[in-house]
Every structure is written in C-alpha cells, then in structure tokens.
Amino acid sequence: MKRIIAIAAVLLILSGGTGYASMELDVKEYKLDNGMTVLILERPAAPIVSALIRFRVGSVDEVPGITGISHITEHMLFKGTKIMGTSNYEAEKPLMEKIDSLAHEWYEEYARVNNPIMEGDEERLNKLRDEIREVQQEQKKYVIKDELWETYLKHGGRRLNASTGEDGTQYYVSLPANRLELWAFLESDRMRDPVWREFYSERDVVFEERRRSIDTQPWGKLYEALISNAFIAHPYQWPVIGWTSDIATYMREEIDEYHRSHYSPTNAIVSIVGDVKAEEVMKLIHKYFDDIPAQPLPPPVLVEEPEQEGERRVAVNFDAEPRLAIAYHMPAGGHPDQPVLDVISSILSRGRTSRFYNNLEQKGIARSISASSDFGRYPKLFSIWATPQDPYTSDEVEKALYDELEKLKNEPVTDRELQRVRNQLEADFVRGMRSNLGMAWRLANYEAVAGDWNYITILKENRSAVTKDDIMRVAKQYFVPENRTVVVMRKPEAVAETGM
C-alpha cells in the first residue's frame, strides 16, 4: 500500500518597497514502496507540465579512479535502452561484448605503456584501438541516433536536457500535459534498463569536453586549481567532469556498477509541476515505476575536510590575462550562517549597486569581480573571482577586495543597503517560482540537499531575517586568512621576467 507522506500548503507573502506578490504552494508528496519520492505541484494556468528526476548523486559521491563518472553517466543515459536507440538489440549485444573484451586488452596494455617499470607495446595499443573502432562501426548499423530526443520533440517536448554537479544529477523536460504518460514510459525505461551503447566513443567525447572546458580555458584552470587546493581530503576537491587520467580509463562495467548502486528509485526524487491532477499523475507513476526494484542507498560520504590552519596560495602559469580566485570554507546548506553568506554575496557583487561594482569596477581596479556562496550537502566554499583592469595587478585587486571584506566586519551595512538586497533576493525567489521547470528544479534540489522541499520557504524567511549584526559576526568568523585559499593566474612570460 502506497502512502502519502505529506500534503502541505504554504502561502507566501513577498513584500518589497513597491507592493507584494502572493503565491500558494500546494505540494503533494508521495513515497513509493521502492523508495522513490514524488513531489507534485498542480498549476493549471497553461496546458504544459515540467517533469524532473533528481538523483542524489554527483561528483562528491565518486572515488579516485572514477572521478567524473557521474557526468559521463549523464551522457550515457541518453543513449537508449533495449527498446530505445536500437533497431536490433540482440544483434548489438554480442558486438558490445566484443568491444568490452578488446577494451580490457587495451586497458592492460595501456597500464604497461604508462608504467615506467614495465615494458608496454605502443604498437599493440594502437592496433587494439583500431580493432575497437572497427567493431564500433559495425555496431552503428543498429544504433538509432538520438531516438529519445527525437521522440520527445515529435510530441511537443522542449528543454529536454540534464545536468550534473557536485551534489546531484537531474534529467528534465517540459511537454504538453497530455503527453505525461510518454514521459513516464520513457523515463522509467531508462531508469530500469539502460544500455551503455557507444560507451568508449562517448568517453572520447567527454575527454574532448574536458579539454575544451578546463585544459584550454583560463577560468577552467583557475577553478580546478582552487578546489583541488581548498579541499585536501573531501571529494569536493576534484572537478565534476573528472581528472583526465580517470576519463581515459573508464570501463563499461564500472558505469554499470555505479548506475546500479546510485541511480535506483531509492535514490531518486521525481518533481512534476504543471497542468496536472496529482491523483492522475500517481496512477501513471505507479503503472510505470512501481516495478523498478529498490536498491540499498549508496554509502554516505563520511570524509570530513580538516580545519584549515593557514592561508594556501597557488600560482597557475597560463597564457591568458591575469586572474584571481579566492575561497573561504563555509558550512553546508541548511546551516544558520548559510543565508547570511547569501546576503553577503549579494551585498558584495549583486548588480550595479553592489560594493564590488562601485568600489572596484567603477574605479577601474577590476574589469570584473563576483562573489558567490555555495549550497551543498557538505561544507563548501564562499568564492570570489576577479580580473584586474590594466594597469592594476592581481595583488592590488586582492588588497582592494580584502578592504571590502574588512568593512563588512567592522562597519554595519546601511538600512537601505540591507533592504535592497532583501528585495533582490525576494525578486529572484518570485521569478524562479514562476517557471514550471524552475519550480520543479527547486523542489527536487531542496528535497535532495536539505532533506525538505519546503526549505524553499525556510531559506527565504531566513534570508529576510538576516541582521547587520549577523553580517558582521559571520564576516569576522569566515573571512580570515587561515580559512583562505588564493589562486593567481599569471602569464609564463611575466613569471620569467620577475623570476617569481
């Protein structure tokens, strides 16, 4: 017997200087016997529905050797199943098995080639790679490219996509409300029985994606250096896309094992918002998802980042204009100080009335500068990103932004400034709730990270309650040198000239 966990109604009165907006959330929450959580918000304004499945799995759940596997799993779950993406699965299957066998031989030879105390055969490695490509070409005769995408598009689907982060992965689409059963059929099929076809060629695609987004991009290099030095123990230290050597050596059975343990209904949250009736939606959910077996929840991340005991400074030599990134450790989402840090990030860098804009950008010290506070399952980072404006240096920008942080510690913000930020955050809140897809994303995200979808309203209330004293207290606690990691990007010729 399925049971309704909660039916909650929340009336939100959002007030600003010019009036108010009201919005009612009547979110119905269900739990299936296999552990899947379902959140439904009925919105009959237009005959459209947005549906999202959030899995509580991201790069934080990975281990060395398979970093980035959550991201490549996101790619692979668009490759189809035994009935989608193929004209003849039974003919495909032995070809995939042959590719796997060759891939294992390639892996063993690759390990020898890349081990300085072993003698590897580079020629054999290339031969095996060619053999794999030959079988992949044969398999392509049976592959129906992008069948999932095309099926949704033919039925009015739009904004079909997915994303992976440190704390979660979500798959989503918006479509006509009378096509929700199609969504239930397609998504239950790929949750239950995905086929990892074209895995090794897709691995090459992700390898190239990493090259474009990290290895050849200044902000990507800066980001990777920042997180890998700010965290020395916690898995937040590696990039979502994964380390290069890990991407190069994934095996197909590894993704299968990872999917089986992390992508079961037990670890999933379904969020549906739009022109639907909850009772009718649940009939479809039961019809298509009930028979997907439950799995034990994956083990939680128990690694705790040790307290930082001194400033960490890193230089990155890269052929790009100078850049600067600074991070301070901050608590996890749901901590009382988290909304205070949200307010601080808005005071510092939100729009043309912010302190960074007026005191650094407008004065020509920084070309761009921004601050952000993370919301995560585990303690994350408050980060500041800046590009100096010539002739100013990174050192001068760094000093100027520290001056702004010191003001937060020692001088109360003005009533007008605090109210402006409150109004901005409330406006963001309202805009985010207007979109069905935005609402579905927020419901699933807060359910996954904070353990309660209603944290949407709790966070809003907590941000509104932030005081001047809170801002000073939190700034003094977190914005200290011993809690700071600094990464500076410099051109190689500048390093050669100065010898530093």
Shape: globular
Residue stretches low in confidence (pLDDT < 50, at least 5 long) are 1-22
Count of runs of 4 or more consecutive helical residues: 18
Radius of gyration: 25 Å
Largest sheet: 7 strands, mixed
* Strand residues, percent: 15-25%
CATH superfamily of the domain at 312-498: Metalloenzyme, LuxS/M16 peptidase-like
Q: Could you state the order of secondary-structure elements as H and E?
A: EEEEHHHHEEHHHHHEHEEHHEEHHHHHEH
Biggest sheet strand line-up: 1-2-3-7-4-6-5
Total strands: 12
Helical coverage, percent range: 40-55%
Please tell me the CATH architecture of the domain at 312-498 by its name: 2-Layer Sandwich
| CATH class membership of the domain at 312-498 | Alpha Beta
Provide the CATH topology of the domain at 312-498. Answer: Cytochrome Bc1 Complex, Chain A, domain 1
Structure overview:
The protein is an alpha+beta fold and 500 residues long. Among the domains are: 87-142; 312-498, 2-Layer Sandwich (Cytochrome Bc1 Complex, Chain A, domain 1), CATH 3.30.830. Helices cover 46% and strands 20% of the residues. It contains 18 helices and twelve strands. It has helices at 69-76, 89-113, 122-139, 147-154, 180-192, 199-215, 218-230, 244-249, 252-262, 278-289, 338-349, 355-361, 394-410, 415-434, 436-449, 455-464, 468-478, 492-498, and strands at 3-16, 19-31, 37-42, 48-55, 158-164, 169-176, 268-274, 312-317, 323-329, 366-373, 381-388, 484-490. The strands form two sheets. A seven-stranded mixed β-sheet has the order 1-2-3-7-4-6-5, with helices on both faces. A hairpin with a 7-residue loop joins strand 10 and strand 11 (381-388). Helix 11 crosses helix 16 (455-464). The longest helix has 25 residues, at 89-113. It is globular. Residues 1-22 have low confidence and may be disordered.
